[in-house]
Amino acid sequence: MSDSYYGRPILKQPTWTWEIPCYFFAGGLAGAAAPFALACELRGDEALARRAWLVALAGVAASPALLVSDLGRPERFHHMLRVFKPTSPMSIGSWILASSSSAVALAAARSVLGWFPRLGRAAGATAVLGPALATYTGVLVADTAVPVWHEARRELPWVFAAGAAMSAGSAIALIGGGAPARRLALTGAAGELAATTVMEQRLGALGEPYHEGAAGRFGQAAKTLTAAGAVIMAAVGRRRAGAVAGGALMLAGAMATRWSIYKAGFQSVADPKYVVEPQRARRARA
Amino acid sequence: MTERVGFFTDTSVCIGCKACEVACKEWNNVPEDGLNFTGESYDNTSALGADTWRHVAFIEQQHDGTPRWLMSSDVCKHCTSAACLEVCPTGALFRTEFGTVVVQQDVCNGCGYCVPACPYGVIEKREEDGRAFKCTLCYDRLKDDMTPACAQACPTESIQFGPLEELRARAFERLEVLHVAGEAGARLYGEDPDDGVGGAGSIFLLLDEPEVYGLPPDPVSTTRDLGSMWRAAAGAGAALLAGVAVAAFGGRR
User: Fold this and answer.
1) A238 in contact with B at a CB cutoff of 8 Å?
2) Closest CA to B215 of B90, B73, B30, B2
3) Is A118's Cβ below 8 Å from some Cβ in B?
4) How high is the ipTM of this complex?
5) Would residue A6 be called left, alpha or beta, if left means φ above 0 and alpha means ψ between -120 and 50 degrees?
6) Would you say A66 and A23 are in contact if contact means Cβ atoms under 8 Å apart?
7) What residues of chain A lie within 8 A of the CB of B104, using their CB?
8) Facing residues of B75 across strands?
């Protein structure tokens, strides 16, 4: 009983609903697919670039819809754009999403339809900053009092970056992306498995929520799906059926990782011990 | 900016009358927060939230072999480094001329970021409304030189309102009196300007560990770690770019 007041949580549960882990997935997809598309253009492979721009476009098209739908007052979504606030990762993120989604739309319009040839090229070049869309979300969740998010602040951007590469590579491979897309997917898969493992190791006892309940089930599913998808992609990805199966499994793996992180946050808030014990220990050290 | 004001809640003289809860609700038109019977001593409001801006905690415990009943009126801490305000992406949360932290309800779009950011679990989204709500330290009353409703209604001066520096001095004096009287467990909470939130605008005198009252032992405004977080994001972003380049250029098509 002395751990907290009638065992009640000290922190409030995040208000974010299913849209948010889905946005992490969609934003990551776009954040990795856009620079990949640019790289393909630079290599002179317009056909592959077109596929990658379409994947990026799908990601940036879904993202604002998901975010606006999560707001308590969706009709006020534009209030995000009335300030630029460096202390708020969500403010920075809103501007990152607003600018990169416009850039991707223009670049895709040029690549697919041939519209705005010069503007589209210029917009496409800004895709070198695309990874910001994939990694800022790590800062977004880490800048909260939620124990398993804040204490994983050094690893979360890496988990999101690797998952972005894996999902973008998988999605592009699914629609005929060939060897470069497969390489991207496999690099991302290895990165995500590594980053997730490092994160769980470094969290130590505080990482418990990642292994329990819904977070644990999503986490286990993520590892299994990712590993299975990567093996299939590496072994038979050259064939269409292999690329589709491996890509689909890895896409599901990337989504499951995001759900695992999302759920673990709620679980670590529900039990006050994850808040009280580390803080007590910190105070004892001071 | 006028002088920074705040609360000093001296829980050693709280009698658990809940006049603060009622006065706050009346003045600020806060909706009812559930007609519940929790069975947790005299507490039926349980925690601070969107519809509970003052919350009186009741703790029944054994202390030196005799029963003891602790009561404490909790409230928003109006932190010096306020995480809710810092992460708010619309500027709805702002610092007033009195040094307090208030939500502008006509600006808030209900993104909910302030909710998990608050290290005390104070601010909350009102589900049926969609926006975030918390104590305003009676911003409207302050502008008319009036005492906040809770402090006005408190019959024992457990809730004191005034310039923060003055309250802090008073808190240390009161702590000294209690220590001399043999109340060894008495301690101040939120009085240290060097703590994780830069010192609270609502300071407390407690008789037991903060967690007993449902308060975090060492709260931190997480935005102080923003530098290391953005560095991690930049590193990961650069690695992603490198990975993309290697995948696109490094090998056969």
Assistant:
1) no
2) B73
3) no
4) 0.96
5) left
6) yes
7) none
8) B54
d(CA A41, CA A35): 10
- Is the pLDDT at A1 greater than 50, yes or no? no
Give residue A254's pLDDT. Answer: 98
Give the three-state DSSP class for B187: strand
Are B80 and B93 in contact by the 8 Å Cβ rule? The answer is no
Q: Phi and psi of B45, rounded to 5°?
A: -105, -15
Closest CA to A181 of A240, A252, A111: A240
**Scanning the structure block, which residue is given the tokens 């906040």?**
B148
Please give the distance of CA A235 from its chain centroid, rounded to a whole number: 26
Residues B29-64: pLDDT tens digits?
Answer: 999 988 889 999 999 999 999 999 999 999 999 988
Closest chain A residue to B118, measured at CA: A145
Summary count for chain A: helices (H), strands (E): 11, 0
CA Rg, chain B, in Å? Answer: 21
What is d(CA A218, CA A223) in angstroms, rounded to the nearest whole number?
A: 9
Residue B95: helix, strand or coil by DSSP? strand
Interfacial B residues in 51-70 facing A (CB < 8 Å): 57, 59, 61
| Closest of A260, A140, A163 to residue A210, by C-alpha | A260
- Kindly state the average pLDDT of the residues B91-117: 98
Q: Which residues contact A168 (CB under 8 A, 6 or more apart)?
A: A28, A29, A30, A31, A32, A33, A36, A52, A55, A56, A184, A185, A188
Q: Are B188 and B171 in contact (CB under 8 A)?
A: yes
Dist CA B219 CA B208 (whole Å): 17
d(C-alpha A247, C-alpha A25), whole Å: 14
Which residues of chain B lie closer than 8 angstroms to A43, CB-CB?
Answer: 248-249
Separation CA B100–CA B183 (nearest Å): 32
Contact status, residue B32 vs residue B53, Cβ threshold 8 Å: no
Calculated CA dihedral for residues A127, A129, A130, A131, nearest 10 degrees: 140
